[in-house]
Design brief:
Blueprint lengths: L3 H11 L8 H6 L6 E8 L3 E2 L10 H16 L8 E5 L6 H11 L7 E5 L5 H15 L4 E9 L13 H4 L4 H4 L3 H11 L4 H21 L9 E6 L6 E6 L11 H4 L23 E11 H7 L5 E10 L8 H13 L8 E4 L4 H11 L12 H4 L6 H16 L3 E8 L3 E9 L2
Helix pairs in contact: 3-4, 5-15, 8-13, 9-13, 12-13
Length: 421
């Protein structure tokens, strides 16, 4: 077994000399200390207050997902040391996370925590578990993103003290998200037509992906109950597909939808070109490559790093345009070396801006549609994007994906993943 000095020397040699490997080659290489993903799955995403998961509380959603993860992973649950749950809205979320871990059949030795950085919470959970593995704190962990926007509606920002509010950016932190979308549209001259064109493509890509069966590789069903709002009848159901995708959507049909925020100019954001409020969850099992090989676990992908960046709260939607270059510089890649970009479509305004600003190939961006079409369960999205990106890399037989999202209060986050299908 090599010493730490020998390993450092080996890494240094990769970066210099005539035989130096390219950054892409280094990223694709396989080393015992890599943090790898051995399972990545998600529940269906369903419309809040209307869809198949509308009566499924966050604890029941988590128990269903974690039970499936335990069963599908074929991993001894006694080996799981920590479960980090990305969640934004649930009250008492730390209690909910710990209780769900135990109720899903994991032993008392499996700890739990909650990660909350708004829309990036799911990716933050992945990063938290990966960092613990890298640091040697744990060997095996599970990252989860979950949100029940039906049973835990978004109440908005809390009241803040006068001292905090005296800061010039503090009032921007309290802006409704819709206003930040209009700020982006106004500041960067993004027309209503461009909003609707972007959104229509999202729906069309999602419709194609669902009809072609591409999503079957991502989704695990949820057995739950649903209540008929008219009769009050409660029945058991199995929810196994996304229900927010509107078939036959066109720019013309979206052009007929009224402005959602007429009080803010240019009033280009609508219920048709913004992300849907949604229920759903996703789970990702992580460990070192050496541990996965020792346990005979299938290696699905490699986590290659994540980063966060702050920006002006009033235009928080442009976060990916800052976070993506930052993570690419850290791993030494150019945008052209990335095969898939999963960028959260919080609003069409931010989608249009980020794709244009970064000069991305539109065919590489959200090939299965995004949050406008399938929804944005706040705490779930960061983990859901990883599941979707890895599934799409397998389908295309490609290797490298970047996931990214804007984050409420003015931030952006991005991560890099390599598929090893």
């Amino acid at each position: 077994m090599s010493t730490p000095q020998q390993r450092l020397s080996s890494i240094a040699n990769q970066f210099s000399g005539p035989g130096a490997a390219s950054a892409r080659d280094r990223l694709l290489s396989k080393n015992p200390d890599d943090v790898v993903i051995t399972l990545a799955v998600r529940t269906p995403l369903t419309k809040a207050r209307k869809g198949g998961l509308k009566d499924t509380t966050i604890d029941n959603l988590l128990v269903s997902l974690l039970t499936t993860v335990r069963e599908k992973s074929n991993l001894d649950p006694n080996l799981v040391e920590d479960v980090c749950v990305g969640n934004v809205l649930a009250p008492g979320s730390a209690y909910v996370a710990r209780s769900a871990v135990l109720a899903a059949g994991f032993p008392a030795t499996a700890a739990a925590s909650v990660a909350n950085r708004f829309c990036s919470s799911g990716l933050l959970a992945v990063q938290n578990i990966a960092n613990q593995i890298i640091a040697g704190s744990i060997d095996v962990g599970i990252a989860v993103g979950a949100e029940s926007m039906s049973t835990n509606p978004d109440g908005g920002a809390p009241e803040m003290s006068d001292k905090i509010m005296s800061h010039p950016l503090a009032s921007q932190n309290k802006q409704p998200m819709g206003q930040t979308s209009e700020n982006v549209a106004g500041q960067f001259s993004i027309s209503r037509e461009r909003h609707d064109q972007f959104a229509a493509k999202s729906f069309q890509k999602a419709e194609h992906a669902q009809k072609a069966g591409w999503l079957n590789d991502e989704i695990v069903p949820v057995q739950t109950i649903i209540k008929d709002p008219k009769t009050g009848e409660v029945k058991e159901v199995v929810v196994d597909r996304d229900d927010g995708i509107r078939y036959g959507t066109t720019p013309e049909s979206l052009g007929k939808v009224r402005a959602a925020f007429p009080q803010w100019k240019p009033s280009a954001t609508t219920g048709g070109n913004a992300s849907q409020i949604t229920d759903g969850a996703a789970g990702i099992v992580l460990m070192k490559r050496s541990r996965a090989q020792e346990l005979g676990q299938p290696i699905v992908a490699k986590f290659c790093g994540a980063t966060v960046a702050g920006l002006e709260p009033r235009i928080m939607g442009i976060g990916p345009s800052i976070a993506i270059p930052k993570i690419l510089s850290k791993v030494g890649l150019t945008k052209d070396e990335i095969d898939i970009f999963e960028i959260n479509e919080a609003f069409a305004s931010m989608g249009v801006y980020c794709v244009s600003k970064l000069g991305l190939d539109e065919k590489k961006v959200n090939p299965r549609g995004g949050a406008i079409a399938i929804g944005h369960p706040l705490g779930c999205t960061g983990a859901r994007q990883v599941v979707t990106a890895l599934s799409e890399l397998r389908r295309q037989n490609k290797r490298i994906a970047v996931t990214s999202m804007c984050v409420g209060t003015g931030m952006g986050m991005a991560g890099v993943f390599v598929s090893e299908h």
